[in-house]
Amino acid sequence: MQPQPYENLSADCCIVGGGPAGLMLAYLFARAGLRVVVVEKHADFLRDFRGDTIHPSTLEVMHHLGLLQELLQLPHQKAEKLQAEIGGQEVTMADFSRLPVQCRFIAFMPQWDFLNFLAQKSAQFPGFTLLTSTQFDDLLEEQGVVVGIKAVRAGQPMEIRCPLVIGADGRHSQVRAKSGLVSQSFGASRDVLWLKLSKHAGDPDWGMGHKGPRHNFIMIDRGDYWQCGYTIDKGQFESLKQRGLPALKANIAAVAPFPVERLEEITAWEQLKLLVIKIDRLEKWMKPGVLCIGDAAHAMSPIGGVGVNLAIQDAVACANLLTEPLRQGTLTLNDLASVQKRRHFPTVATQFLQIKMSGKKKSSGKKSPIPGIIARFPWLRFVFGRLIGLGFRMETPRL
C-alpha cells in the first residue's frame, strides 16, 4: 500500500531552500500578493560558519523595501574596508567609503538573524508559508514540465503543486541534481578550515581580512569571538588529520597574529568546519517550470564574501521579472530565461575576478599578482570596493 500524503498544497511558487536567496525572493513574491511556499530541510536557521556578510548593495535593497533601519537594530559589526597583510604591511584591498548608497560598509551579522528577520517580515503577508524540517524529495513533472515538488515532512510524503519551482538550495542543490541541469566547473586550488577563537584584551583591531605572511589566515570580528579561516591546498584535509591536531595548530600559528597557546581551546577536530571551495555555474539555469538561483545556479569562492550578495541580487531580479507572469498565469520558459540573461554578466564577471584573485597559476606556480598591484596603486582599493560592495550589476526591487 502506498503511504498517504501528509498534506497537499498549491501555490504560485515553491522555493526550495530557506537561505538568503530563497527568503528574499519569498518576501518579494509574498509582498506582491503571490502565494509562495518555502521548503527548508532544517528546523531553524541556526548554523555556524555560514556566509554572514551583508554587502552595501543588499543593504540598499533593504533601504528600498523600508526595512533597513529595523534590520540594523540587530547586532552586527561594520567593515568599511577589507584589508590584507602583504610583505609584513597591512594593505587596504577594498574601500567602500565612496559608494553611492545609504550604507558604505559591509555588515557582519549572523546569518540566522538575517534569515529570521526576513522570515518574520514575510510572515506578515497572507500568501507566505514556511515549512521547516521539510526535505525536498523530487520534482513533479507532467509532459516534460515541472508542476511542483514531492517532499517529506514529519516522516510523511507531501506534494506542493505550483507553476514555478525555484531551486535556492545552495551549492549542493538537489533541485539542480533532480532537474538534470548541466554545470561547468572552473575548479579552485584551496579549501578553508573555519574555527572560532575567543577574543582577548590586546587583540588586533581587525574587522575582516587576511593576516599572516602567506595571506592564508582569515579573521572576522564576531563581537565576542573571532571567526577564523585557515586556507589549505584542496584535498589536504585528510593528510592534515593524519599528522594530528598539534601539528595543524602549529601551522595555523605560523600565519596567524596569535601565539600557538591561543589555539589550545581547539581540542577536537569537530571544532573545525571544512568548506570545500568550488566555482561553477549552470549552462542553463532553467527548464520548463523550474529555475535555479544563487549558489544553486553558480557556486562562488568565499573571496570577498560575495556569494550571499549575488544570491540576493538574483532574487531581486527574479522577483522583478517573474511577478507579473506569475500573477497573470502566463509564465513561459522565456520568462525564466530572462532571469539568467539579466544575471549572466555579473555572475561571469565576478567568477572571473575570483579565479584571478585565488590560487596559483597552473603554468608558473606563482600567486595571483592582484594583491600586490592594489598595494602599488592605492586608488584601486576604491575600484575593488565598488566591485565587491555593489557587484557588477546592482538590482533595485520594483515596488
Please give a structural write-up.
This protein is 32% helix and 27% strand. The protein is α/β, with parallel strands linked by helices. A hairpin with a 2-residue loop joins strand 11 (145-153) and strand 12. The N and C termini lie far apart (49 Å).
Concise structural overview:
This protein is of the alpha/beta class and 399 residues long. 32% of the residues lie in helices and 27% in strands. It starts with 7 loop residues before the first strand and ends in a 9-residue tail after the last helix.
How many helical stretches?
11
Determine the strand fraction and express it as a percent band: 25-35%
Number of strands: 23
Distance between the termini: 49 Å
Tell the overall outline: globular
Instruction: Please give the radius of gyration in angstroms.
Output: 22 Å
Class by alpha and beta content: alpha/beta
State the low-pLDDT regions, or none: 209-214, 360-365
Question: Which strands sit side by side, in order, in the main sheet?
Answer: 7-6-16-17-18-15-19
Main sheet, how many strands, which sense, barrel? 7 strands, mixed
Average pLDDT, all residues: 87
Helix content: 25-40%
Features of this protein?
6-stranded mixed sheet; alpha/beta; single chain; 23 strands; 399 residues; 11 helices; 7-stranded mixed sheet; 27% strand
